[in-house]
Each structure stands twice: as structure tokens, then as C-alpha cells.
Amino acid sequence: MPQLHTFIFYIASENVIDYPTIRVSNDDIQRTFTNLEHRQVACMVDYFEPYEMIRRVFSLPFKFHLLERIGNNIPNIVFNSVTYLKLWDIDPFKYEFFVRLARAFPFLKNLSIRNIIPPFLDKNYHLRDKDWLSIIEYPHLISLDMERANSYYLENFLNETKTYSPHLTELKVTYYALEIVTNNFTRNETRRNCAEVRQLIAEGPMVYSKDVYCYFPLLSV
Questions:
Q1: Is residue 29 part of a domain?
Q2: DSSP state, 218?
Q3: What pLDDT shows up at residue 153?
Q4: What is the pLDDT of residue 14?
Q5: Entry pTM
Q6: Which of 16, 134, 201, 204 would give a disulfide with 175, using CB separation of 3.0 to 4.6 Å?
């Protein structure tokens, strides 16, 4: 294709692994694109199960708006164009991950998290409130889907001492988790990030009490 001057692409493939002990690295994939002269290419390899992997290859700078099934393996790249992101992993997301997330996706507007595993279990449970070292800001985030996430992640996103999302207007959760995290809609630390929410999508029986409307003053049912 002699007339082709620019090739912008994003390729993702999901594969079943026959031999889980043999793993493909980012460098292995990178070497297959040596013929693309004067063009930057990046790749991501995620292993979600012993027999499942997702490979992604894309041109730089990244030009697409949506990324799905992203796990802990976020590369050291800034995705300025991405506004819609779906996270999913069987390994827990820790504080360092969310720091990298905010840096990698500075214009993120819609975020969905699917992870039922919290970082701290059993003997390490006492560390869950000591892990968050500073406030992480998501200045453009307007929609947050936590319906399939452990309440640990919901707490960290609503707690103003951990996360600041000044423009959050849509929240999707389970009512049970929301009730626990907000201490029956009385907890002050989680009130600020709920103040701009206009649409609350809750799985499970939702009782719109006076406390709920005080907690979500702009809520429209």
C-alpha cells in the first residue's frame, strides 16, 4: 500500500492458553512490529485466568475513546483520548494502581469497575485504611459503575479523604454496598462525592428515605 501514510489502529484478541507456563511478554509482541518505520507502537498483555489472556496492540498516540477489560497491567502511557474505561481483574486493585489510573487517563468521564476481590483479607484487613496515602483526583469523571465491585472500591471512590470526583453525576451500585459505605446515609466522609449525583442506579430494593435525599440533594428519581 504505497499511498498509505498513516495507520492508526487498536487490535485486541482474547485467547485460551494451552500451556499456561509459557507466557508471551510485551517485548515478544513488540518485536513483530519492527517493519513499521517511524511509527510508535505499544502493547499490553493481561492474564486473567490460568488459561485466559488478552493481547492488545495499538499505535501511539492512542486515538480511541473506549477501553474494556483493562486489568492491573496499565502501561506507562497517557491515554488522553480515552473517556470510557471498563476495569476487570481477578487480582485486587491497590492504591498504586489507582494512582497510575488517574495519571494514565486524565480525561476519564465514565468508569466501570468489576472486581470482587479487595486488596486486604484476613490478617491484613487492618491495613485497608492505611494503604491510601493521598487523595486521588478524577476531575472529569461523571459516571461511576460499581455494581460488580467489592464495597472496598466503592468506599475508596466515595470517601473524600481518598478520592475527589467533583463532577460525579451518575452512580451505579448495589443498594446494600451503598448503605454500608455511607453508614445508612449519615457518614460525612462520603457525602461530598455524592453531592452532585443526579442519577442513582441501585441494584436491590431501594428505599428513598429523607436521609437518601439529604445525601443526594440533586437526585432525580
A1: yes
A2: T
A3: 96
A4: 86
A5: 0.87
A6: 204
